């Protein structure tokens, strides 16, 4: 079916499905009121209004993969807080750690007795020898970038077009007509972010060599698979080239594993034997509790010691926040690393992701659509193009907000919550085989409605 026809059909579907959503949720509708709630826009984070639903779901309970909204609707969650709850809502060992941490003190600005165990677990699991904590992946990226600049003495940063690394000013840029510019819609941004950040297309080895040639880039910050602009896999050999060229240019390689931790135990880096100088991870690493980690090589750690000594080691370094490294974070990290983020959990996630990938591909073929399913371990995304996209320009050309919204709303009305803004499915160890099958059936039904083989709900 032509894209224009599909989009017209998607618009009609959105209208019908929005009605169904509304009819089932009088309480959620009533809860969304700026005046009564006291929140700006009626929500604790303004972007909670950006979902394709007419008003936000208000979640009463979340456990495993099941959400119950304020109106009592039960939903299978494959959005999982966009990865924050990748291991399921409230994994039992983390709930136990939360309870115990509550009894033993949540934050003291000192290392807790869990600290040494957690440090060793991070080294074992992710390979790099020295670690620090933050509260969010955004924080961890900011801190790692700062360290990269400190140890290289260089100011510039290189990112890939279409990247998202959190609320990190230096990275909020776009590549437009070959020029790096501040991203549109940034609030209150007064600096020209293109002055110190270079953005190039992912998978473009020539552009990479060119950008690194002046030996003035402190670090390349990259997701190993780009997950925030479609889902863009690295071309064969791209990571080898990236590592080789960065080493040659004296540029550090900072890998952001916040989403690609879905790949398998130890993240994409461990599974694919990458050799970054710095790694960042956040979101699910503490089982849903706000904690992030960033790791560095021995060489960076050694240089940092020297710099800190020269500066006498005191004062504001620009790294760290009061609640980072807290007893609460350490307790939850320990529980997650020891008991939640395990080989067994990943095996279960992969097995269901295999089923969903095969089922989605069959449904797409059955509907005669030329779409692909991109995958990084437990993370799958439906991309509206016949071939995997190679960079952000191709991903943007393939994307359709309208079709995405239609799929999202229709799936939600059938009881499955996809990630908004892109059709991402994240498979948690709490998802059962039956639920995975139900998700595939729902997807197939929705595609049939989209191509008008079946009437809408
Ligand atoms: C790859 C990546 N890194 C970092 C972040 C920032 O995470 P947080 O919002 O938890 O700081 C995100 C958020 O989506 C992300 O996708």
Automatic annotation (TrEMBL):
<dbReference type="InterPro" id="IPR015424">
    <property type="entry name" value="PyrdxlP-dep_Trfase"/>
</dbReference>
<dbReference type="InterPro" id="IPR015421">
    <property type="entry name" value="PyrdxlP-dep_Trfase_major"/>
</dbReference>
<dbReference type="Pfam" id="PF00202">
    <property type="entry name" value="Aminotran_3"/>
</dbReference>
<protein>
    <submittedName>
        <fullName>Transaminase</fullName>
    </submittedName>
</protein>
<keyword id="KW-0614">Plasmid</keyword>
<keyword id="KW-0663">Pyridoxal phosphate</keyword>
<comment type="similarity">
    <text>Belongs to the class-III pyridoxal-phosphate-dependent aminotransferase family.</text>
</comment>
<dbReference type="InterPro" id="IPR015422">
    <property type="entry name" value="PyrdxlP-dep_Trfase_small"/>
</dbReference>
<dbReference type="InterPro" id="IPR005814">
    <property type="entry name" value="Aminotrans_3"/>
</dbReference>
């Amino acid at each position: 079916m032509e894209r224009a026809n599909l989009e017209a059909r998607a618009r009609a579907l959105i209208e019908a499905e929005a009605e169904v959503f509304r009819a089932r949720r009088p309480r959620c509708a009533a809860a969304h009121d700026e005046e009564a709630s006291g929140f700006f826009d009626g929500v604790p984070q303004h972007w909670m209004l950006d979902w394709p639903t007419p008003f936000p779901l208000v979640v009463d309970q979340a456990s495993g993969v099941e959400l119950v909204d304020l109106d009592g609707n039960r939903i299978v969650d494959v959005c999982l807080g966009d990865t924050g709850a990748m291991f399921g809502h409230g994994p039992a060992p983390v709930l136990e750690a939360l309870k115990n941490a509550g009894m033993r003190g949540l934050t003291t600005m000192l290392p807790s007795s869990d600290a040494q165990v957690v440090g060793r677990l991070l080294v074992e699991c992710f390979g790099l020898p020295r670690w620090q904590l933050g509260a969010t992946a955004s924080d961890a990226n900011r801190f790692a970038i700062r360290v990269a600049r400190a140890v290289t003495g260089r100011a510039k940063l290189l990112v890939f077009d279409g990247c998202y690394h959190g609320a990190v000013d230096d990275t909020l840029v776009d590549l437009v007509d070959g020029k790096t510019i501040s991203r549109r819609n940034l609030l209150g941004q007064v600096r020209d972010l293109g002055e110190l950040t270079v953005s190039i297309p992912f998978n473009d080895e020539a552009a990479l060599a060119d950008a690194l040639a002046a030996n003035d880039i402190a670090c390349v910050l990259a997701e190993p698979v780009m997950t925030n602009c479609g889902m863009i896999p690295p071309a064969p050999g791209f990571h080898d080239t990236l590592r080789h060229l960065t080493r040659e240019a004296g540029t550090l390689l900072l890998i952001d594993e916040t989403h690609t931790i879905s790949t398998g135990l130890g993240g994409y880096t461990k599974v694919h034997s990458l050799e970054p100088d710095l790694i960042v991870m956040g979101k699910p690493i503490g089982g849903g509790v706000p904690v992030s980690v960033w790791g560095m090589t021995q060489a960076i750690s050694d240089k940092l010691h020297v710099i800190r000594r020269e500066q006498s080691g005191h004062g504001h370094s620009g790294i760290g926040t009061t609640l980072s490294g807290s007893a609460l974070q350490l307790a939850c990290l320990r529980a997650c690393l020891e008991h939640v983020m395990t080989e067994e959990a990943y095996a279960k996630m992969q097995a269901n992701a295999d089923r969903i990938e095969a089922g989605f591909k069959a449904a797409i073929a059955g509907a005669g659509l030329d779409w692909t399913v991109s995958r990084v371990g437990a993370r799958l995304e439906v991309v509206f193009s016949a071939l995997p996209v190679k960079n952000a320009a191709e991903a943007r050309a393939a994307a359709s907000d309208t079709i995405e919204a239609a799929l999202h709303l229709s799936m939600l009305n059938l009881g499955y919550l996809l990630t908004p803004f892109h059709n991402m499915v994240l498979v948690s160890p709490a998802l059962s085989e039956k639920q995975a099958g139900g998700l595939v059936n729902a997807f197939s039904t929705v595609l049939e409605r989209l191509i008008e083989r079946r009437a809408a709900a």
